[in-house]
Amino acid sequence: MKRLMLVAMALLITGCSSISTDADFDTQTDFNRYQTWAWVESSEAVGEQQYHVDGLTDRRIRNAINRELTARGLTQVDAAQADMLVNYLTQTEKKVNVDTFYSSFGYHPYYYGRYPFHTGIHADTRVREYQEGTLVVDLIDRQSKSLFWRGSGTDTVKEYKNPQQRTDQVNEVVNLILQQYPPQ
Question: Are 154 and 20 in contact (CB under 8 A)?
Fold first, then answer.
């Protein structure tokens, strides 16, 4: 029974999405007026941020954003006719996770040296380094060039063995980010 519970917990934990998302927006914005969009041209990019992805990942992210915006009824047009401009940024950060597990609490009824009984605590510490990746999607008003909506998704960077797994992960992250657009 105990073994069955451990297996069930492991499946529950691995089945849950670890992607955390967030969105921020200008509360004065009328989101209904945005019906068309275009990608920000590299010369129009705001700030010093650079793309930190390879060409294949760039294509995956752009395709996923195209699909999600189209599903929300928005139409992609040339930048000169667009109501809003879309940009995205990526970032990876090295993280360290330190876990300490305590075991062997309590009373031990056997001889330990000169003492017939003793208590003790055993601690086991594990350190794990990993990469955390963040995808940020910005929506910018074309006329005023001001940011009116920003969504982000953060997850542990995983080593996928094939392109389909990479594509599925990008699609999931973009979907979760853009589920928050337009704000309710």
Answer: yes
Q: How is residue 31 annotated by DSSP?
A: G
The structure tokens listed for 43 are 């010369």
Helix, strand, or coil (residue 101): strand
59 Cβ contact partners less than 8 Å away, ≥ 6 residues apart:
none
> What pTM was estimated for this model as a whole?
0.73
- What token pair was written down for 22? 């967030």
Answer whether 87's CB lies under 8 Å from 138's CB.
yes
Q: How far apart are CA 154 and CA 19, in angstroms?
A: 6
What is the rounded distance in angstroms from the CA atom of residue 154 to the CA atom of residue 136? 9
- Rounded to whole angstroms, how far apart are CA atoms 131 and 94? 5
Chunk the chain into consecutive blocks of 10 residues (it has 184) and report each block's average pLDDT, rounded to whole numbers. Answer: 38 58 96 96 54 76 97 96 96 89 63 58 82 95 96 91 93 96 91
For residue 41, what is the DSSP state?
P
H or E segment to which residue 165 belongs: helix 163-178
What residues are paired with 84 via a beta bridge? 37, 141
